[in-house]
Design a protein that fits this description.
about 280 residues, mainly beta, 3 domains, four-stranded antiparallel sheet, elongated
Length: about 280
């Protein structure tokens, strides 16, 4: 038998425990007397757990939370509709379509140094664009560079004549609108010409990694080498998450009759001890 000192009256309430999968946590209290939602959850809100049958007990301890204030929504409107309103989204210049780009954040909400917003990464679609000015002849498909301006991209050509038909810019370098240049490294008769139409304005942003510690209204800037570093957007929605698998604590080989010496929020179904009872 496990040992635990119980003084009469220490525990006034008991509740049979139903362990749950880590993905099925419900933050509402499992105790009816303290649950005001109308639906019971599986949060034992700091209870102690009696173990009726020997085995492992897997729990989330009281006070343990998941990632806090993760980003769930972005505001891509030019003006963020707060009160007062302030500028939000700007497409910036010099960006190219990319995934997993880091961001930096400016927040109007005071946070401690240990809880600064960080970790938000985004995928962007950018309108960096050029058109075919002169098609030329005898070019080949593939990547080209313009060394002097640091421009990079690819061209697609007519299979019969080698005339340039399409162009995609992957790095605008120092190009400006209306710049015209010949694609280097793709052969050709020297008459092919590509004309820059836009400077890489971001047209769409989606969340790749949600980060932590953000607040609605934070202004974020997309970081990308070679860009103007001036694409900004506002945080529209955040969500704090419940604990995850890495937060589970295992009490191993707990003896029958033991009361765990810990305040417990959730009992996880990966343990094999039986006849568990929550006590308050």
């Amino acid at each position: 038998m496990g040992q635990y000192s119980i003084i009469a009256g220490t525990f006034g309430k008991a509740l049979a425990v139903t362990p749950v999968a880590i993905g099925a946590l419900d933050s509402r209290s499992a105790w009816e007397f303290e649950n005001q939602s109308g639906n019971l959850g599986n949060n034992y809100t700091g209870s102690q757990i009696y173990v009726g049958g020997t085995g492992n007990v897997d729990v989330i301890l009281a006070g343990v939370v998941g990632a806090q204030d993760t980003v769930t929504g972005l505001n891509l409107a030019p003006i963020f509709p707060a009160n007062p309103s302030y500028p939000g989204f700007s497409g910036g210049t010099g960006y190219t379509t990319g995934i997993g780009l880091a961001t930096s954040a400016t927040s109007l909400v005071h946070k401690s140094p240990a809880n600064q917003p960080a970790g938000l990464a985004v995928d962007i679609t950018a309108s960096a664009m050029a058109t075919v000015g002169e098609a030329g002849l005898n070019y080949t498909n593939g990547a080209f560079t313009i060394t002097a301006q640091g421009i990079e991209g690819t061209i697609g050509v007519n299979g019969a004549t080698g005339a340039i038909e399409t162009v995609t810019i992957t790095n605008l370098g120092t190009a400006t609108p209306s710049d015209a240049f010949a694609p280097q490294g793709r052969g050709g008769d020297g008459n092919g010409q590509i004309v820059v139409q836009s400077l890489g304005e971001v047209t769409a942003i989606t969340i790749r990694a949600a980060g932590t510690n953000y607040s609605v209204g934070d202004i974020c800037t997309v970081t990308q080498a070679g860009s103007g570093g001036n694409c900004t957007f506002a945080i529209a929605a955040v969500e704090s998450l419940l604990p995850a698998a890495g937060d589970v604590v295992r009490f191993a080989k707990v003896l029958e009759g033991t009361i765990l010496p810990a305040a417990v929020a959730y009992v996880i179904g990966s343990g094999d001890a039986t006849d568990l009872v929550a006590l308050k």
